[in-house]
Amino acid sequence: MSSRYTDTPLLERTTSTGTNGSADAKPHRIRFRSKARSTTASLSSSIPSSTSSNGLVPKPRVHVNDDELCARAETVARAMDFRGLAGSNEPESRWVLKKSRGTFTTYGRRTDTTATATASRVKTRWTQQVLAAGEIRCHLQEVVHVLNTTSDFDHNAVMSGLYRKDFIYGAVVHVVPSDVVGDEPKLVELLTEEESTTTQVAVKTGTFVHSRMFAPNEQWCFLERAQHVRGVKPDPLESSGPAKLNSFTLTLSSLDDKELEAGKVNGHSRVNMLHGMNAGYLVEQIPGSKYVRVIFFGQFDGGVDKPGLASTSQMRARLQRLANGATRLPEVVRRRRFGAQTMADRAAFPAKNSYCICCTKSLHLLTRKHRCHLCGHYVCDRCWSVQEMETQNTRRITPVRVCTRCIEFVENGDYSAVKPSSLGNLEVKRDPVDNPPATKTLAHLLRRELRASSGARKDSVRTVIQYLVNQEAEVEQAKTERQAKAETEARSIRLTSDSTEQEYLDVLDRGALNVPEVPLYKCILANAAKRNYPITMPKTAVNGSVPDAPMPLDEKERLDAIARSRIMELEDASELDMLCSLAASQLGCNISIVTVVTADQMTVLGSNKEDLRRVSLPREHSFCQHTVMTSKPLLVPHPEADVRFQNINGRTAFDVRFYCGFPIVNDDNTVIGSFCCMDQKTHEMTQSQYSAMKRLASAAGQVVRSKNRNRFE
User: Fold this and answer.
1) FYVE-type domain location, by residue (predicted)?
2) Hey, what domains does the chain have and what are their CATH numbers?
3) What's the pTM?
4) 317, 381, 452, 663: which has the highest count of C-beta atoms within 10 A?
5) Three-point CA angle 390, 394, 396, nearest 5°
């Protein structure tokens, strides 16, 4: 790779070597090591420390050490001045409008640079530059999740979205560890400090379809440097300068393909190498706005013509196509927003509306109408559009038909914390190898509470232990003879209100508290793939408008069961409060509640937060309105992005960004309420957490039924 930069308005010269290689040339600022000099160092930084099964050290993926990669990336980043893109006022240096696409506009220009080696010889070279600029209505973190990738799948998904059929495939060859770069936190994680900067360096490749007919395809090996600067609000008492904006910078610079061992096409007769090309993105959050400003800049230094390298015309065409790809960023951001939604299963329920839900047009038998994939209702022929939806599990882009009302709610969500890995079907994750089972963690929590509590709280802990220990084992959970024998011995002592504290501790130590582990294939979630009921959107998403509360098919039977149980008259619920404390600790959440959902409101019966007990919310403003729709647990990893929950008071009052709810059933298995956990940050649910929540929800239902029976006796 040529290490020479031209004297242009954007890139500063980093070397002054003459065209004839004279001895009076100035040295490099940062000297790039050759392949022969850096092979030894690269073995320690670019490959795993473990050896292969035959004892041989695997080949390095990159023949350049990490320190050198960081130095090169830093050099290119410092030379790329996005603030000076206006350049010179000379006519030959002005930007020429190329095309406009949506909110983005692309420009191009060609500048001549002159390098003098001796007094008798002058050689003129030219530089091709492209520019794309526009604004996107989104959070800056959404663009960060798109542009910054660390896996082959994410890299290929983004490149395919930006360059469509022009892109063939690519690879993430190597990611420099964060301790080498100098920033410990990961780039895509929001930091807690007021002001922070994180940097990530990676080596990637990309193969493109030929830009000229009958020409070979094109391959680019490049070094990528991503830097995220989280700004700080200015102090009104200090006026030391303007506030730093929340920004993200991505710089790309060409690498010699000989410096890469993997991730590239080895047959050079089929591909031409893209060379001498540098590009970059600058993304800034506009202060006081929901928009981000995106600037893409690319530059190619001409003058090099060697076999195996792309020609000058190919480089110019590829540079322009890279700029055109940047204009598709809004489309990639939008399709990921639709991937974060739970679409309606239109085969599970019929659409019954006789008027268009958007414009109220009458939908007669012969009227052309279509069903919205998101809300599930009929809309007229003018009130829908086809959108793209990206899902992680299917690994493809799916077209969906969405009405105008649903589109407004999708655009209104907060997607700053939605990562590509969370798009698509929800699933319970397998526990890490070193993760303790739910039985041990719950027993440890109960022992700690029993020893530390006193008075009424200690009585509540003892009662909860009775419910959990004396509760019958799950019939569906298969057990070996050894497990059954151990449980029989442990259950030989049945706890009562007269049992001593030491007897409670002994029972916990013997393993009498058993949480049956639910097999992973039985960890079923409601609406994991699609939603089996419609939602009715309000006319607009502004002013905190929320969809109407859905009604289950057995709503009448459910309300009758609540009335018969007289659960709303329950006053002493200290055992429910203790169960909520256990659930919050088990899932690592801040809030846990036990609720009952009536015809028009949701009431909190118990909680680990004293301020939430006996609090009521309108049914349409609660999470639990959707939990009682089925007998399966409901998991919502990003309610701030979901059109069902983004505006409800139950979410906005505490900035809830994670919800998990397990139904609470009556004696006849009718769902009357829910056992929930909520937090201000998103979580993944593991198999042990699912098993623990299922057991605790069953105990909560038993507590409610037992208290009601005791009141009537």
Assistant:
1) 350-411
2) 83-232+242-327 (3.30.530.20), 342-422 (3.30.40.10), 438-510 (no CATH), 520-712 (3.30.450.40)
3) 0.82
4) 663
5) 50
